[in-house]
Amino acid sequence: MHIIIISLSTAAAIGPACILNILSSSSRALRSTAQPRFDTADFPNPLPQVEGAPERHVQVQVASQVDSVQGQLTKATSPCGLAIPDMAETSKDGSSGHGEGMSVEDNQKASPPEPPAVTRTRSWIIFAFWAIVACLGLPHWIWTTSIHRSDLPLDAMNSWADGQMKYPLRIKLDTADDNEAIRSNKEEILTHLQSELLHTNKLPLYDVSIAPSQFNESFGQGQETDGDLIIYVRNESKLPPQTSLRSLSPVMEVQANLREPKAAAHLIFEEILKNLDDEQLSLSNLLRDSPFASGSEALLSPEQKAKLDARTTRAFKYASTYHLTFSLFSASSSPSAWDIDAAIEKYISPLVGQLSAVSSFSVDTQVQLHATFSPSIAGPQFDDASRKWKLLKTDLSGFINAAEWPLSPSIGTGPTINFVLYVPSKEQSPLVIAETGGTSWLIPQWGGVQILNPSNKQAKNLSSDDLEQVMLTFADQLTSLVGLPPSPSSLALRLSSMVRERATSLILASSSTLGALSRLTLKLTSIAIPDSVAKAVDETIGRLDQACVDLREGRFESALSNARIANDEVERAFFEPSMVGQVYFPDEHKVAVYVPLLGPMAVPLVMAGIKQLKNLRSGKVKSA
């Protein structure tokens, strides 16, 4: 057996930990061997041979030297100043291997302390990076991502419409005779009529005022009435009482016995209620679920509500300008022309002139020959019983052949109202609607269609007289498409009613859009609000206030004009392109954009900063 004896100088050179392991193994081997054998050539300083000495004596000396070296190494310390543990404590079971029973810190050499210059350099580098981020990066990021939010009058947007909507109804009464007895009866009629109108609460939406007036027979011919209702009473004691309305002026002519003023007043009162019934129902339907609701709106039956909804659905949305297109489509080569200009001037222009107080109109015409039906319908079917060609009601909606008929789309800013005159061929004539037997129908929010069955002697040119019934039908369809109420019979009163309805609907639509814009700006705090939006909102509020004032004072056309401008302004503000684009870009998308860009850069900076702060803090604690 070979036993290695290591000197203290060699042990100090190769390291205490390694020597301890070697010595521990050697000592254990010596103690566990019954008859050890060794060679002196293995030791750098071999022991002298004792001639004649027994082998056991040599073993004792070697073991003694090993124990001596172990004891000296036990008292030694490591270069780090840590005491070397006793060999007896390296293993509780008497065995020891390389690194067994010792902590990792004892096996690692501690790094030398860092020079102050290196620490300062590292601190300055980290500070420089953070200074660039704080002084350049963050300001640039804030500048490039900041949004401009103009101040909006949110309180005014939400509360400007508080209050009730009232519609003044100025009624003027006059009599044909001017003697003393008639004047006295006229005063009594005014008193009874005012009592019924103001105390029966049959017109809760109207602010009724009654006054005497000097009636002019030419009233309404170019004179400004501004929604007043003129009641002209003729004394007639022999004939039964009756009333009538003038078509082009808001005049109600009453024939009654003025010597019975109470009965005459009641007759006038009933006629006023009848003429305002449709308008009152329509206004109640508009105001019921709006901020203007006062609780005094008339209750609508399901039939009345369905009728009003149908009228609203049928009419175009209000516009300041409409374009009228009159088209002649002939299934054959005849007729090839029509005297449309004269027909329009005779039958359409008077109506358009009356409607010009509400909207402006432009007109164009066109003709197409050999026009075919739309391929989406089955086409007319011949009925042997009636000897007529019939179109099913289900085919009416697809009657227009949009692919081949050159129907003009919307021209300019306003919508286009189409009026189509279809002349079938003689082989498919007469052509009627199967369910009703009629020859005309209306397409909601598009226009009207009229079928003109050719006569045997019909020329190639349709004169204005041939077009009379056609143009009257188109005129009636036009009133429905622009939203003119069906009653009363006076066109002037119907126009006044439509102006009030349109002004009310525009005010309600504008106020609703204002509220939606206010809620949008409060909910999306990161959305930009350009100055143009704030300017449009201010203009809208001003116009709405003026429209309400005009309504209360009876200036209905001015109220309609202000309400239309207010609606246009608030629609432009709500659909501002710079705002609409940001509505659909939530904060989650921003996080998804920033994390991949800032994560790889921010993590090293943050971790280095935290580590340096800890080092500086620990250095201060040690120095303290």
UniProtKB/TrEMBL annotation:
Entry keyword set: Endoplasmic reticulum, Glycoprotein, GPI-anchor biosynthesis, Membrane, Transmembrane, Transmembrane helix
GO terms for biological process, alphabetical: attachment of GPI anchor to protein; GPI anchor biosynthetic process
Database matches in InterPro entries: PtdIno-glycan_biosynth_class_S (IPR019540)
Region Disordered: start-end pairs: 82-116
Main location: endoplasmic reticulum
Superkingdom of the source species: Eukaryota
Ranges that cross the membrane: 6-23, 124-143
This protein's GO CC annotations: GPI-anchor transamidase complex
Pathway as given in its UniProt record: Glycolipid biosynthesis; glycosylphosphatidylinositol-anchor biosynthesis
UniProt key word Glycoprotein: yes
Pfam families the record matches: PIG-S
Protein name stated in the entry: GPI transamidase component PIG-S
